[in-house]
Design brief:
Shape: elongated
Largest sheet: 4 strands, mixed
Oligomer: single chain
Number of strands: 24
Distance between the termini: 19 Å
Strand content: 25-35%
Strand order of the largest sheet: 22-23-1-24
Number of domains: 2
Number of helices: 14
Bound molecules: ligand EPZ
CATH class of the largest domain: Alpha Beta
CATH architecture of the largest domain: Alpha-beta prism
Structural class: alpha/beta
Helix content: 25-40%
Length: 438
């Protein structure tokens, strides 16, 4: 398995370009299953989960052309298989996003039930309950979800209220409702920018979706959807990660091709901490921290509040800030895996259930550490950038899932980081059941 070797201490300086959002690319790629016409997606991040999602689409019978690295032309006119197998789902739980489109267009779908992962059990009961409310029959069979539309093949629009805010649950039901008979209203829907991006694609395909990005989404079902062309929004979590990278190293970064309005709660919190963040234009930020940082509490919540996907990166920053911060993780039940690795580097962190109490600043010392999930890996890289000495991070395939060439981007702005590739004779670094985090 690949590792990163980082020698800390270099303030980052220069300019970095943000890639497309993984968590928008994945549902948008799944949406291509809703039509026999070609869906062209631009600005896809060159990250491992996109490659996995492409393989899933091709396994189902779709063709995917890549005229250039970050553009996929997807045509699902010849879908012959309606099943996402365990081998794929275990490496990427977002494969469940194939359920809604397959059920809506073909009236049937079989997807391996994703197991838990490093950050939590992550059930999909709310997805399945929603499909049943749309008239589908859903049953569990040997670890697979088997769903089928009522006789006649079409789902029937209805009102659905999510007991909890669920991002991919909202996306799955929204896609399923686009081809249902009648109108569907989703209440307590997720409001993430990735939902709004998916709505825009669906409407370009001929769907009639209103309210994307708000807690109430209305979908008038149509007979069929067509092809479309769409550019994926920038990744707000990558943007936040690089703002923290500038701050934790005491450097200054110009962060281009981003959408500051998609991470206003992150910008607000980091500004409180003492990071200087300036919007140079609607797609460019400048982040630096010249003076000492002050610790502040934070609570993760669904959008537009502080995102759980930035919690690990924020914790790394709090180890270098003056004072005590209490970090409350309300979205996932086990998302502090990075804390023990940060403690091995010298961080002072106490875990109490859903709370992490961080006292800073503490000098960090490089050490051999292990990544456990996508965002925890980013947190460990950030800690390595400021630690004295050498940090070796193992299992960096976690970070490759959601960040495009992060070590190249960091090296280009002065970080002393390199990838140590696993020896070719080593067994394959295939992800395990627990790795299906994001
Ligand atoms: C999406 O996961 C993201 N993944 C996650 O990003 C992100 O952390 C998460 O939303 C929260 O923002 C993608 O978009 C591919 P949820 P998702 O359904 O949709 C519970 C990353 O790092 N729940 O919003 O799986 C669930 O257990 C990844 O890029 C149910 O109980 O998250 C969790 O506690 C990690 N039943 C909470 O809701 C359900 O049916 C929020 O989960 C569904 C969810």
């Amino acid at each position: 398995m690949d590792k990163f070797r980082i020698r800390g201490g270099n303030p980052l300086k220069g300019s970095v370009s943000i890639s497309g959002a993984k968590n928008s690319a994945l549902p948008c790629m799944a949406a291509s299953l809703l039509t026999p016409e070609t869906v062209t997606l631009h600005n896809l991040p060159y990250a491992r989960d996109i490659i996995t999602q492409r393989r899933l689409l091709e396994d189902l019978g779709a063709t995917v052309l890549t005229p250039e690295l970050r553009t996929h032309k997807i045509n699902a006119s010849h879908i012959e298989i309606f099943e996402a197998p365990y081998e794929l789902v275990k490496t990427m739980r977002a494969s469940v996003l194939a359920l809604g489109p397959l059920l809506a267009r073909f009236g049937k779908a079989k997807v391996s039930l994703p197991g838990g992962c490093a950050i939590g059990t992550r059930p999909i009961d709310l997805h399945l309950k929603g499909f049943e409310q749309l008239g589908a029959e859903v049953r569990l069979e040997a670890g697979n979800v088997v769903a089928s539309a009522p006789a006649g093949g079409r789902l029937k629009g209805t009102e659905i209220r999510f007991e909890k805010v669920t991002v991919t649950g909202t996306e799955n039901l929204m896609m399923a409702a686009t081809l249902a008979r009648g109108t569907t209203v989703l209440h307590n829907a997720a409001c993430e920018p990735e939902i709004t991006d998916l709505c825009q694609l669906l409407n370009r395909m001929g769907a009639r979706v209103r309210g994307g990005g708000t807690p109430t989404i209305e979908i008038d079902g149509v007979e069929a959807l067509g092809g479309a062309e769409h550019t994926i929004i920038p990744d707000r979590i990558e943007t936040g990660t690089f703002i923290v990278a500038a701050a934790i190293t005491g450097g200054e970064l110009e962060i281009k091709d981003c959408r500051p309005e998609h991470l206003s709660s992150v910008i607000k919190k980091l500004t409180e901490v003492g990071v200087e963040i300036e919007e140079l234009n609607p797609s460019t930020l400048r982040a630096r921290s010249k003076r000492g940082l002050k610790s502040h509490d934070v609570t993760t919540e669904p959008y537009p509040q502080f995102p759980t996907d930035m919690q690990a990166q924020y914790m790394a920053l709090m180890t270098q800030s003056e004072g005590r911060s209490v970090i409350a993780e309300t979205v996932f039940e086990n998302r502090f895996m990075h804390a023990s690795e940060l403690q091995r580097m010298g961080a002072r962190i106490q875990l109490q259930g859903r709370l992490a109490i961080v006292d800073g600043p503490t000098p960090l010392t490089g050490a051999p550490i292990q990544a456990s999930d996508l965002r925890a890996s980013a947190s460990l890289v950030l800690a390595g950038l400021v630690a004295r000495g050498e940090t070796i991070i193992d299992r960096v395939y976690h970070i490759d899932r959601g960040y495009e060439k992060i070590e190249a981007k960091l090296r280009a702005v002065g970080a002393d980081i390199e990838r140590i590739r696993e020896s070719v004779t080593a067994p394959s670094s295939g992800a395990t059941h627990q790795d299906a985090a994001a």
